[in-house]
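Q: Hi! First time doing this. I have a protein sequence and I read that you can turn it into a structure. Is that right? Here it is:
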Amino acid sequence: MSSEEGKKPATKDTPMSLRPQDPWTTFFNEFIPWHKLPDFLGLVRLARIRDLLRKRNLYDTSEVASPQAPPPADPSVRHSDARTPDGTFNDLDNPRMGAVGTRFGRNFPLEHCIPEPEAEMLSPSPREVSRQLLTRQEFQPATTLNLLAAAWIQFQVHDWFSHGKNRKEEPFRIPLEQDDPWPGEFMEIRRTAKDPTRSPHSNDPIPTFLNTETHWWDGSQIYGSSRKIMDQVRSGVDGKLAVGDGNLLPLDPDTGVDISGVTGNWWIGLSLLHTLFTWEHNAICDRLKQEHPGWSDEELFVKARLINAALMAKIHTVEWTPAILAHPITEVGVPANWWGLAGEEKLTNKGRFSDSDIISGIPGSETDHHGVPYSLTEEFVAVYRMHPLMPDEFIFRSLADDALLAEKTLPEVADRHARPLLNEVSLANAIYSFGIAHPGAVTLHNFPRFLQQLERENGPTIDLAAVDILRDRERGVPRYNRFRRLLHLDPVDSFEELTDNEQWREELRRIYDNDINRVDVMVGMYAEPVPPGFGFSDTAFRIFILMASRRLKSDRFLSQDYGPELYTQTGIDWIEGSNMSSVLLRHLPELRPALGDLNNAFKPWRRTSS
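A: Yes, that's right. Below is the predicted 3D structure, encoded as structure tokens:
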């Protein structure tokens, strides 16, 4: 597959900034891809890639379509040394940056983010793409990961973004093929919620959408993104979050689902992690109260939230990501976002000894938005479409002797079924079962069957694979080849270049009418060969290179304000001395026989036996 190999002449639709005479682009198009270079040279290449992406792939949408003035931030809210519920005042000069109700940005020039006319937008049929290219015929496991890795990414995504409730009016109507078992002549898919901040008189074709969560990495999936939700999840005593019977999360009697900051698309995997990090918050409160017995409930809460949110960001950066991107270069390069290339040991022993975040890591370095107000982007949303990680069947076993406890399907572990199942098998046994099981590989023909006919209590039955395809088109995310061009990668010239799987080539050719430029970005990323050790595509990785460090570098609580002055020395020691394994063992020490001395808790665990 042509990625950075060789240079191609500019075409009429190639933006000037991407043409080969650009010296930065010439560097990209060197013959050897980054993942085939010696480790040091590969790290240098990735650093150069990130520099280029920072210069060319950050775009602000806040002024599109004559927006109405946003409501002012409330200056009375404690904000100088604490995260606010709605994400305001992270940037003290621009208090509404990254807050609830602000727009998603873009990673591409805005003129390349205009959706196609609707007839083209529905071609080829998202339903047929789902049926013919995404349907799981046989479960393809990702054998280097455990199922906690799949639960973790949904746990994190709920902290990062949501477009809110879809519109009921004027849904997309997708004609169905004669052999399609879906009831009726059409499949209806609701449109994304409108952006109410756009001027009603604007005809600007560039789409804009609001994030109903904060854009910051602030633990909002646990704490909520409003004062109302935050008050619901707090106990009001010693800074702690509320827990109920059996030390599990309180249960909403109306929905039968745990009460937490974000509880959409609930299943037992989310229940495990929300419970675990609620316990972690409360343990942090206990430790802080020991050292500061005079602190109020509010003081304990805001400090514990800071510490817990930073710990989750650290776990994602130095453990989850290297587990799913297990190439020798990325196993060093990605954790360097946190520790720098100096590494954990030297940073722990000597502290920051360089102003460079490349050498000493981003936490503690100067905050920098790289010239564009911070937000998450629609392209970031697109590359985190990882539903194939989810299995259709789940096996629960005993931690004590690996004995079979229960076998369930995906619907039987979701929504109101999660709590009864957790009571049946116990939280420790459920986590053990996730530790020894594999998620699915992020590839074609591996989308969970149950998610292709997802029945929801408060909405229509949907084919989530078809929805994923249509969402990218609706929101103006370019199709695969243009997506690659705009990331300074060569487009693929043929289906043979896209994939080395002969069966997939013919299926892709048929669905896309032999037009390689019509391939959807999600389909292309699922089809392309991946670098050794990678759990998702190199194309998606380019967005990750940019946005993974941006989420740390733009957040003052994870950059310039990360230190003992704000977190307390106890807090910094807690974060830097903890990882996913230590969090698990702090609350469930009985997991030690399965976790053992494993260096990454998202890799497969040891099975126990009597």
